[in-house]
Every structure is written in structure tokens, then in C-alpha cells.
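Can anyone check this?
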Amino acid sequence: MKVIDLIRGSKSTAFSFEILPPLKGNSIQKVYNVIDKLKEFDPKYINITSHHSEYIYKTLPDGSFQKINIRKRPGSVAIASAIQNKYGITAVPHIICKGFTKDETEYALIDLNFLGVYDLLLLRGDVKTLEAGQNTNLYHEHATDLQQQVNNFNNGIAVDGSVFDANETSFSYGMACYPEKHEEAPNMESDIYYLKEKVKNGADYLVTQMFFDNEKYYSFVDRCRAEGITVPIIPGIKPIVFKNQLTVLPKIFRSDIPEPFATELRKCKTDEEAKAVGVEWCIQQCKDLIAHNVPSLHFYTMMASDSVYKVAKEIY
């Protein structure tokens, strides 16, 4: 069943969460441990992040350096299939632009089709500086370009323009949105313009970047509705678990932390104290969102699965 149908068919606010593939060489059991912890809350779907390759420098015996291109967290496609087979829960792998060529994206779509995984989250992904001289025409620049490739694939058009028999089951997908504006957008009007393009071209739903101020989410949704965007806009939620996230998260994700929350975090002497404050804020934040009839809550679990469990225990 499509994610959009799972959301709309839920009798109450739906629950879902995002996981990371294990680091290269680590067991998938770490993924299963998170799912086993959270499955009691009836997740409608589970997202699996995707991570592009990056360059590292390896010291050779003679003291020189060798530049090596590696992916630290491979396996998103395989993990999506494993989750669906083991738990019977819809898996939603992330498909990203940065660090993946158009051909690699097509191969992923072919594999996912063979594996029976038909729900995707399409994202630009973290900015990756391409090597000097690398052919940028091999890569999509924006999530909307990636969206067009998926739409073409659904219609039986390969990335090289050749035609094939379209799959019996088309891919459906969600895309990202930013209640506090994408960092590269010149203004919110421009950001919403491109959001409308995403929906017009086939996005079934939208998932927000993490936020901590519900009023900014409500204002954003109101602006989207006024512009004719009618698809579900799913709040992306993350409990703060470390003291330094008071300054780190706003810097990385451009998400403001309301002053009452920041005041309590500044009082914390340890990460454990900050974690407890983060859980309490998140519980109240989620209760307020549910009271405003949001269709679903989507939790980012990276380094926060214990906190997500405590929050979900209080609200589901």
C-alpha cells in the first residue's frame, strides 16, 4: 500500500520514523534493534536514508597519501527490502541527487522494482563538491530533476531516452519541504514556488525538515494551502539529546530553537539532563501537533531512538 494511502487511512495521527543504514561492515542487527524498539507504536512506514560517497585520505607505508572514494553507509536498497520482508512494514528508501549518477539512480529503481519496494522519498541530499573536471551532466542538480527521472521511469522511459515496458506497479513518492525556508532559497515565496512544482509533478506528500517551533510549521502550512498545495505536510520531529545541539542543530539545519526551550537547555549541566529536557519538549510539541490534527508525525531517530521511544510512549 502506498504511503499516502497509509497516512490517509490511519484512524489517528500516523507514526513513522527514519533510520540510517549501518556503517560499512556493521551488522543490520543495529537497524533491527531500533525497529524492534519502536514497532509497538504501529509505524505505517519506515524511511531508510541514503548516503553518497566521499573522499578520504589513506596513509601509505611510504608516508604518502592515497585519495580513496568510499561510501560509509551503503545498503539502503537492500535494507528497505529486508525491512519489508522481516516486518511487513512499508519501507521508503531515500533516493538522492548528490553523489549518485543518473545511471546509478536508474539501477536502484530497477532493483527496487524487482524487490517489490515501490515507495520513495526523493531528495537533493547533502551538497557534494564534485571533483574538478567531473562531468556534472551525469548528476541531477535538483530534486525536481530527480523527480522527472522517476516519472519517466514510471512511464517506461530510460535515462538514455530508450523505451521499455513500464512496470506494472509505478513508484510513488514524497518530497521534502522547509517550514523555515531552504537555506539556498532567496525567500519563502521562491521556496513555495518550487514546492508547488514538486506537487504538480507528482509528489504525493511532503515531509518537513526538523523544527522545534510549531507556530512556524502552522504558518508554513497555511501559506502552502493558500497557494493551492493540498497534499499532506508531515511534521519531521527530532528530540534533542545532547547539550551542544542547542547551537549545532540551528547551524546545520537552519531550525530555530524557541527561547523557552533554549533557556531550559542552557541550564543543563550534562547530556543526560539535556536529553530529559529534549524529551519533555518533544512530548509537548507532539501533543500540540496532534491537537491541531496533523495527519502524521515522522521522527528522525539518529542518536535519538531511546528518546523517540519515550515520546511515542506518551503520545500513542
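Reply from J.R.: I decoded it. DSSP finds eleven helices and eleven strands in the chain.
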